[in-house]
Amino acid sequence: MTETVGMLWYVLTSPSCWQHAVLLNRFNYPFELEKDLHLKGYHTLFQGSLPYYPKSMKCYLSRIPSRMPSERHQIGNLKKYYLLNAASLLPVLALELRDGEKVLDLCAAPGGKSVALLQCAHPGYLHCNEYDSLRLKWLRQTLESFIPPPFINVIKVSELDGREVGDVQPETFDKVLVDAPCSNDRSWLFSSDSQKAACRISQRRNLPVLQIELLRSAVKALRPGGLLVYSTCTLSKAENQDVISEILNSCSNIMPVNIKEMARTCSQDFTFAPTGQECGLLVIPDKGKAWGPMYVAKLKKSRTI
Predict the structure, then answer these.
(1) 233, 251, 266, 279: which is the annotated catalytic residue?
(2) Model pTM?
(3) Which helix (H) or strand (E) holds 156?
(4) Would you put residue 100 in left (φ > 0), alpha (ψ -120 to 50) or beta?
(5) Contact present, 298 and 256 (Cβ < 8 Å)
(6) Contact 148, 76 (CB under 8 A)
(7) Residue 54 burial by Cβ neighbours in a 10 Å radius (0-12, 13-18, 19+)
(8) 243 close to 215: Cβ distance less than 8 angstroms
(9) For 209-246, what is each residue's pLDDT tens digit?
(10) Is 233 a residue of the active site?
(11) CA distances from 215 to 190, 260, 267 (A)
């Protein structure tokens, strides 16, 4: 146990260990880049057979720490790839998006998961919401950088308080993603600003209340029979398992969905820690698999209460 904690701390506080996956943009297909990634020893993520993994999604990673240069934002030019923590694709894949579905990304900025959702399928309607005005600008720029104008027409971007969306659009969406504001252990541990760290410690006490309120709103926005995925980038049980347990105990129309098959299939690329939940996964950073932390829980709204 001590060895595991020590490795976690080392990876989280050592940028030289960090890995960056390369998610290719289906709307500006980088054929030459894909060939170059193969030559550099990159391999496709999820080489096993996931229950849901669309052929249109192509993500590459290297087994050694590496980072492609970031592409500059240029109005009118689509970027060819998005750099991300590979574990952040797990919530997207858990949502099992199909063509024509109505989807809500409740806390969407900076936009990576919205971009990844659009690599999976062509939704009939994608609502990307972000309450923070500065992060909202980042979200708009990300979507503009990766999504061509014809598809922008099926995307709505809003600046609503996520806790109120369920009341504004009740039982509207087939799928809802709640990538909730959280402690973000990677950036918190790496921060050398003691004043900022102290502020984050204070804030994280209140985060579970916000996360539960966001999930209750998401439940209201979800149609009966729809899927809801909750995710964070923290190791905190209070922000992960305890939040999901509260929702399952208090919402009689919400059921857990077993997600353990995803962990079994992805064990080649990720290291998982036990969560005590069949509906929840926790990716922890490990040497050579420096992805996460990422908690993912999958829920379903029953058709009858």
Answers:
(1) 233
(2) 0.93
(3) strand 155-158
(4) left
(5) yes
(6) no
(7) middle
(8) yes
(9) 999 999 999 999 999 999 999 999 999 999 999 999 99
(10) yes
(11) 28, 22, 28
